[in-house]
Amino acid sequence: MGNDPGTNQLVLAQLGDTNNFKSDSARTLSPNDGIIVTVYQEDDLTTKTIIDKNGMVMLPLLGQVKISGMTTEQATVRIQELYNKDYLVNPQVNLIVEHFAERRFAVLGQVQKPNNFDFPQNESVNLLEAIAIAGGYTRLGSPSKVDVRRIENGSPKIYHLDAGEMSKDPKKKPFEIFPDDIITVGQRTW
Question: Could you give phi then psi for residue 80, rounded to 5 degrees?
């Protein structure tokens, strides 16, 4: 029965397409995420905290530890290494994300529904998808005049993009939208 091809097909059909599934563990940690850090048999090291705006958390014995930008697995390994280095022998660290911070982007200008939007749970959004979420272009909207404002390394950066060209070239990698990006669709000139 274990090698029955019909059974294998049924199981695969029930599983569906698991290649597109992104678990919470694949998402990187960011400021305002709420986490719980536990160390097996070290109850006094248990910490429930929120990642600060600099990507740091305060942990017993270790002090400030930067974990923003890491996956939960990477952060767990980092904390485990730090405890193992000076304080504990083979510590078993567990990091649980209690809640992820809201991840939002804004679409302004010549779109049907200018507003702030939440990222879909555990998914990324590219520029064309963001414009579609905002209802698409108005009749005055110019796909060739799209700006994305983003904070990089503490400074604002503006990307001038041509969404019309992006939509025509399936080989071109879509421009990915990051949390707190501000997309502005310009007006056509006649």
Answer: -60, -45
pTM flag (> 0.70): no
What is the pairing mode between strands 34-39 and 93-99? antiparallel
Co-location of 44 and 87 in the same domain: yes
d(CA 128, CA 163): 7
Q: Is 132 helix (H, G, I), strand (E, B) or coil?
A: helix
Which DSSP helix (H) or strand (E) runs through 65?
Answer: strand 63-66
The 10s digit of each residue's pLDDT in 71-113 is 999 999 999 999 999 899 999 999 999 988 888 899 999 999 9
Which structure tokens are listed for 29? 């940690």
Q: Which H, E and C letters describe 115-168, residue by residue?
A: EEEECCCCCCEEHHHHHHHCCCECCCEEEEEEEEEEEECCEEEEEEECHHHHHH
Residue holding tokens 């990698």? 173
Across the chain, what does the average pLDDT equal? Answer: 84
CATH number at residue 29: 3.30.1950.10
The answer to whether residue 16 is domain-embedded is no
What is the rounded CA–CA span in Å between residue 132 and residue 113?
Answer: 10
